[in-house]
């Protein structure tokens, strides 16, 4: 059931996120609003006692600063990518995240990977490269946004392991709630500085472009609600299932999202682009299997 919710929420988020960016191409505003909605939702859950309130210690908040910063970088970069290219292309490039994880974890000395894991990232890189050079909607800004998003989320994961190990009593939902709040504090002033002067003109143009103006508000709210919900579900899933099951589920999630958004937006796809996308996603699956096998060997040793 958790996978059904996770996939459905992700599909809805991606559809409405792109619908908004098609008429209101201001990703910094949208990314900020999505964090704002998530923060409000968590404050509601805590104040109504529907979710236990984890009173944060000074040490916890200090430990959260690094992971929340990189979460912010990952989120805004992905949103910039979504604003410039097809949703399917962004997700194909984001499927290369394991390659970045292996590279940076090795360089920083936080993890060592066996040769089989290094071999598994070859199809990921090749597939993403083939998808990029054959992408109909290719835009350099969209490509770089997706790549920077990968770097941001990889560093978020690395620093979460380093700094949040001693706070395991805080469950996934509460942890993501605090990450949302701190990320909002990071992103809001930067978003206002980067594109705040353009928001009113963009809003008027968006309302004019939509035949029924209230639809714009509905789209914006839905994007914020489902952005938080799918992330909340993913953090809760991590509490319930094994890392391997989560990795496989995350790989399949990208397939479902790519197919769904291609059907909704009817993006043209070249045969070589589809082949590259398939190779990259299959490489991600191989990586999850190879990584799990490597961890199992370490435990046996």
From TrEMBL:
Main location as per UniProt: plastid
Annotated keywords: Chloroplast, Membrane, Plastid, Transit peptide, Transmembrane, Transmembrane helix, Transport
Biological process (GO), any one: monocarboxylic acid transport
GO cellular component: chloroplast membrane
Record-annotated membrane-spanning stretches: 26-48, 60-83, 116-134, 140-159, 171-194, 214-230
Membrane topology classification: Multi-pass membrane protein
InterPro entries found in the cross-reference section: EmrE-like, Sugar_P_trans_dom, Tpt_PEP_transl, TPT_transporter
Signal peptide positions on this chain: none
Entry protein name: Sugar phosphate transporter domain-containing protein
Record organism: Acorus calamus (Sweet flag)
